[in-house]
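Model it.
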Amino acid sequence: MTADPVAKMLFAVARDVTEQRALELQLRQSQKMDAVGQLAGGLAHDFNNLLLAIMVNTEIAQQRCGAEHELAGHLSDIARASQRASDLVKQLLAFARRRPSQMAPLDLNKALASLSMMVRRLMPENVEINLATASTPAIVDADPAQLEQVLLNLCLNARDAMPDGGKLSIETETVHIDGHQPELGLATGRYAVISVTDTGTGIALDVRDRIFEPFFTTKAPGKGTGLGLATAYAIIKQHSGVLGVESEPGKGSKFRAYLPLSSSAASSPATGELENAPSLRLAAGKGTILVAEDEDLVRSAVTSILRRAGYVVLAARDGVEALELLESGCGAQLVLLDIVMPRLGGPETLVHIRRRWPKLKVILSSGYGDAANALAMGAALLDKPYRAEELLRRVEEELGPEAGRD
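Modeled.
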């Protein structure tokens, strides 16, 4: 009698983990961006303080020297360089989403025209530059300084891709997206497009998928930070747009930034051009101002410019000292508070001021920090780094005929 053969069975379970892997990748990217945001915020606070001191002291020196002085040209260069540095810090904060954009209707055609000379200075002589703007206004709601940074970053990337020279083309146009181009990830509607095309080395497929990652770079150590394209990508996304790239090795690259056309195109668009620094108004101020600032360089620069403008100025190193001076009956009609200070910061100091002196004028100043609660409590805001003229203008706006303390 033969026994029945033992049946052998294989039981297998398969599970598609593609979506899980994608979610894990998104989580890691989110954590990386959050870490970059924390780093950006901390660095921006210190950089803004240093830049403020440079900018205000430069303006004082320009005022004292006059336009005909042999150092006038050098001082103007310092002023322009510090303004550009200020814009870069703002872009870093925008990239990290730690600073709100200052949106206004912007005509991309005019913005490109105003930047054309700067772009030409960035390019070596062996790079041919072609500019072509749309035949109709390409008006978007945008932060002019941020879009300027996007364009400059894309141009610098193109320059580095053409070490032996080549051709750079910058174009603007308006297009209609009808929903049949899902790869763009854009809703149906009309868009303005900025295109930056180079005839450089091109980008390999395995690299192209990573070029918008923060700190990713194919350049040699010391030749790039990996933030240029990442910053441009983040700014365009913050403007409800999309930044894409088409490229093949040896065939150059074409970057396209899609931005929704403005619904308020009839408004007067900004051009993106920086205003010339006005001359300082001296010996015109009346009143007593209390300045609370923990950074020595900034406190010295701010008190100097206010005193030169005719104000009586008292200085404190933090919120605790500021409150002590107010309690002593110093007679301050306006308090200028830095938001981030040791012991007692600006918003916390403002809470005490509103309880004790509810009608005292207060200006909160910082290039980094959440000031929403401060605004709700009736304080004015002044973004760092600011020029001396901006400080004086804001102080004059606050110190009206009925300024004082009850």
